[in-house]
Every structure is written in structure tokens, then in C-alpha cells.
Design goal:
Blueprint lengths: L7 H23 L3 E5 L5 E4 L1 H7 L3 H6 L2 H4 L2 H15 L5 E9 L5 E12 L5 E10 L1 H11 L9 H18 L3 E9 L1 H8 L1 H18 L5 E6 L2 E7 L3 H16 L6 E9 L7 H17 L4 E6 L2
Parallel strand pairs: 9-10
Antiparallel strand pairs: 1-2, 1-5, 3-4, 4-5, 6-8, 6-9, 7-8
Length: 302
């Protein structure tokens, strides 16, 4: 016997399901953000083309791996901790900024939002992840506060970081010291050997200062051949040693380069005093230049 023709209601349901499937596929395939379905073990079940573009991996490679394999090791613990809270029902979803490691070793920043899908019995079934590429935004933010030649903080970036350091020092009742460096002989080098040699010198001096600085110090190039180093939580002898070591290292650089340093210490720092601290260190540096260059002069913030 032949089967009876489908009813109009059944046809309407089938058409609605087909329409919903087409719309899901269109959204999934053409979404401007990465989308992934992730198993409870962290393996990718389904990924869209945009996620492949962001991560740098093709679909087949992603399906064979899990998010753990492409997440930067320094971010994995935080991601897994939030995932555990999501599984426990403590969070409806979570969002975080983290890093992926692309196949070529490049590191990119993304914004990740994760929600859980539960089955009909309210048991965890899979995760839905939305991935947004933050590379351009991060790069723009970085460029806004960093010197493009040396990679050090610029004047704006230094001000932001330095105020945080000063606020912490004030709260903890710690003294801070500011070292203002102006290179001696740089104009002669730049004019005599060309801008390429001058740029290379500035990069080398920046690396020299970064190598001597501690993690809590703030190093910046604020323009031309002028650099600042904010030293936090060091006593007077340690600050003097830092300044003298920097002077000796720059003097050993050669090519007619040395440094005039102004060193100013604030016993009771205040974020509002930053401009005054810089101006005072600038004055002391100029006194070092007038006195013969290649020396460190020190003063207390008045």
C-alpha cells in the first residue's frame, strides 16, 4: 500500500525545520566572529571558518585537537578554572581575554565567551564558544603608549604606569627614585654616521636599561635621546648603584656615547607629584651636563 500524503501541518513543520537549519548554517558559516562547539573534554566538535582564520588552524586540525593545545600556557589555568565554575553551575557563562598560539608560533590575543549547552535532563552536553580577534585593538593600544623604535613606554605610557607605582609606594610608605638620562654625543653620532646608526644606538641603550631594571621598575623613552627609569622600593645605596652601573655600561658602549644622569628621590611619593618629579630630575640631569657630562647627579625632591 502506498503511504498517505503528508498533512499540511507536517509539511509546515518540515519547512520550518529546513528554514531554521539554513539560517543556522548561514549564521555559523558567515558570522564575523569565531564560533566553536566544544566537547566536555575540551575537544572541538564543530568550528566555523572565521575561527579557523583567527586561530590559523584548518578545520581538520582543530577537530583533532582541543582548546588546551592552542591556548597559551600562561592563560590555560585561568581558562580551566572558569570552565570548572561553569560546570558547577556557579556561572551562566564566562568571558576572558587570552592568547592563542598559531601554527607559525605567533601569539594572538582573543576575547573568549563560553556558555554551556545542557541536554533534556539538564546535564552538561557541550560548550558554545565565541572568539573575537583582539589583535588590531591590542596593537593599537600598545602603539598608543609605546615608543615605536625601542618598544619602551612613551611619555604617555610612562605617566600611566608611573602614577600606579607612585600610588602603591605612597600606600606602602616606600620611597621612589627617578633617573633621567640624556645621552652625550648622540647628535654627533646621528649627524656623522646617519640616522640608521642613531636609531640602532637608541635601541641598544633601551635594551641596556631594560636589562638592568627589575620587574617593578618603569623604563621609558620620552623623546629624542632622553630616557626615564622609575625605581621603586630601593634604598639610597641601591639606587646609586643602579645609576652608576647604567653610566658605566653606556660609557662602555663606545661610538662617542656617554650619559648624563639626574637622579631624584621622593621619600613621600604622591601620584600628583609626577610632573614635579620629572622636572626636578631634568634639572639635575642638566646640571650633570654642565658639570662635564658622563656622570650621575643626585638630589631629593623638594
Amino acid at each position: 500500500m502506498s503511504e498517505p500524503p503528508p498533512s499540511a501541518a507536517a509539511e509546515d513543520v518540515a519547512a520550518a525545520l529546513a528554514l531554521a537549519q539554513r539560517r543556522f548554517e548561514a549564521t555559523f558559516l558567515h558570522a564575523p566572529v569565531g564560533i566553536a562547539h566544544v566537547g566536555l573534554d575540551g575537544r572541538f566538535l564543530l568550528v566555523n571558518p572565521r575561527f579557523c582564520e583567527i586561530s590559523g588552524y584548518d578545520t581538520e586540525t582543530l577537530i583533532r585537537t582541543g582548546f588546551q593545545q592552542i591556548t597559551h600556557p600562561d592563560d590555560l589555568h585561568a581558562d580551566e578554572a572558569l570552565l570548572a565554575r561553569l560546570n558547577a553551575g556557579e556561572l551562566p557563562r564566562y568571558a576572558m581575554e587570552k592568547r592563542y598560539i598559531r601554527p607559525d608560533g605567533a601569539i594572538i590575543w582573543i576575547n573568549l565567551t563560553v556558555a554551556m549547552v545542557r541536554d533534556d535532563d539538564d546535564r552538561p552536553e557541550l560548550y558554545v564558544a565565541v572568539i573575537e580577534d583582539l589583535s588590531d585593538l591590542r596593537q593599537a593600544s600598545f602603539e598608543a603608549v609605546h615608543d615605536p623604535l625601542t618598544g619602551l613606554l612613551n611619555r604617555r605610557g610612562f605617566a600611566c604606569r608611573a602614577k600606579d607605582v607612585l600610588a602603591h609606594a605612597a600606600h606602602a610608605r616606600l620611597c621612589v627614585s627617578l633617573l633621567f638620562l640624556d645621552l652625550d654625543g648622540f647628535k654627533q653620532l646621528n649627524d656623522g654616521q646617519g640616522h640608521a646608526a642613531g636609531d640602532a644606538c637608541l635601541v641598544d641603550i633601551a635594551q641596556l636599561l631594560k636589562a638592568q631594571a627589575d620587574a617593578g621598575d618603569v623604563v621609558a623613552r620620552i623623546g629624542g635621546d632622553e630616557f626615564l627609569v622609575l625605581l621603586a622600593d630601593r634604598d639610597a645605596p641601591a639606587v646609586q648603584v643602579f645609576g652608576e652601573d647604567a653610566r658605566l655600561a653606556i660609557a662602555a658602549y663606545g661610538m662617542g656615547i656617554s650619559g648624563s644622569f639626574g637622579l631624584v628621590t621622593a621619600d613621600t611619593p604622591d601620584p600628583a607629584d609626577l610632573d614635579r618629579l620629572i622636572a626636578c630630575a631634568d634639572d639635575v640631569m642638566r646640571a650633570a651636563k654642565r658639570a662635564g657630562k658622563n656622570q650621575v647627579r643626585a638630589a631629593a625632591l623638594m
